Structures are given as structure tokens and as C-alpha cells.
Amino acid sequence: GESVGLHLPTLSVQEGDNSIINCAYSNSASDYFIWYKQESGKGPQFIIDIRSNMDKRQGQRVTVLLNKTVKHLSLQIAATQPGDSAVYFCAENRSGGYQKVTFGIGTKLQVIP
Amino acid sequence: DGGITQSPKYLFRKEGQNVTLSCEQNLNHDAMYWYRQDPGQGLRLIYYSQIVNDFQKGDIAEGYSVSREKKESFPLTVTSAQKNPTAFYLCASSTGVGTGELFFGEGSRLTVL
């Protein structure tokens, strides 16, 4: 089952530095891995995804790395800005029939001005 | 402007009352979902619907009911049988194929008094 808790893991980063948010996933059959950003009081927004047959994908200021050997996913944010402060969720999707998207518990990113 | 609209944004309910949360999308998406989010936790799936007039239970369906009479609409009823209904409820939609990218609404915060 999924581990739950009242306190999100928190990452504090100085403005302008790079951020690395990590995620461990459980299902080796997942086809896609997705990162979402959730600002306070809002719904999550898609950031970037990566297919299971890739190990790296880059977007604008973000890079996702996938290590299937250890079932580990990371999101790197370059030159972190105050607007990046949010909770970041990784999600895994196993397609085929219903798309079962499973979310992790999230990491809170605090950007220090 | 395409998107997902949830209403109401805030809702207060007395114990023993049923409440219905609205979710409408104009993205022409086949699949729709309801998630529950508790403080410091990830998103847990309540119900999902892959197509009109069909829906399936998610991981925490007890105490909830849904309908999917129209493609655009997927209302969620929180019944009096739900033991801990106070939470942030998120509706999402997707094309049902591909990466599994979910498009979320802004959420509805339900508080039971």
C-alpha cells in the first residue's frame, strides 16, 4: 500500500539554484511517468512526462530522469524561481484499457528569495 | 477556453447530509476521474469513467456515488455513509489514451461541521 503521513517531504532551495526532486515508484509495468505541480488550493498541473523506454527527457527548465533499475524518478528544475514553490507529485501510468494513474505523496518545494 | 470546471469551490455540510460536487469539461475527453486529497497526502482515486453511462470504483469508493449521463459531466455525491468526508476533491479528465496526462479542475473543498 501507499505510505501516508501528515507531513510532506520538504525541499528548500535558494532562488537561482537548481532543484532536484526524487520519487520512488513501485510498478515496473508502468508505461509512463508523469510529474505534476500543485500550487496551494489548486488542482495539479502537468509538467513533463517520460516513457518507460527512455531514461531522460528535457523540457523548458525541467529535466526528468528515469532509472528503471532502481525504480527511481527525478525532476530537475534549473534556476529555481519563487513561482516554482509548490507541491510536486510523480505519477505512474499503466495503460491498456483503463489508464490507471497512481500518484505518490508529493514533495513540497520552498524557494527562498 | 477549454478546461474543467468544478463547483462549488467551498462547501460546508452537516453530518448526515448528502452533497453533490459538480464537474464539467469541454475538452471532449472520454475519461473522467474523481480524486480525494487529504492534507499532506497524495491523490487517491474515488471513481473513474472511461465512457458515457459507464463508471468504475477506484481505491476508496465507499460512501461515494457518481453518474455519467453526459460526456461533459461527472458529478460526485458524498453520502452520509462516508465516515471522513472532509477533504479536497479533485476532478480530472483525459483522452483515455497515450501518456495518461490528466487535466484537473481547481478542486472543491468540503468541510463537515
Summarize the structure.
The complex is a heterodimer of chains A (113) and B (113). Chain A has 113 residues and is mainly beta.
Report the radius of gyration of chain B as a whole number of Å.
13 Å
Please estimate the helix content of chain A. under 10%
Report the average pLDDT across residues of chain A. 88
Work out the number of β strands of chain A. Answer: 10
- Helix/strand/pairing category of chain B: mainly beta
String of helices and strands of chain B: EEEEEEEEEEE
Q: What is the 3D shape of chain A?
A: globular
> Per DSSP, what share of the residues of chain A sits in E-state strands of 2 or more residues?
over 45%
Determine the strand fraction of chain B and express it as a percent band: over 45%
Terminus-to-terminus distance of chain A? 37 Å
Instruction: Tally the beta strands of chain B.
Output: 11
Descriptive report:
The complex is a heterodimer of chains A (113) and B (113). Chain A is an all-beta fold. Chain A is 0% helix and 52% strand. Chain A is globular and about 40 Å long. Mean pLDDT of chain A is 88; it is low at 1-6. Chain B is built from no helices and eleven strands. Chain B has strands spanning 4-7, 10-13, 19-25, 31-37, 43-51, 54-57, 64-66, 76-78, 87-94, 103-104, 108-112. In chain B, the strands form two sheets. In chain B, strands 2, 4, 5, 6, 9, 10 and 11 form a seven-stranded mixed β-sheet that branches. Chain B has a four-stranded antiparallel β-sheet with strand order 1-3-8-7, with no helix packed on it. In chain B, strand 9 (87-94) and strand 10 (103-104) form a beta hairpin. The termini of chain B are far apart. The interface between A and B is medium-sized, with 29 and 31 residues.
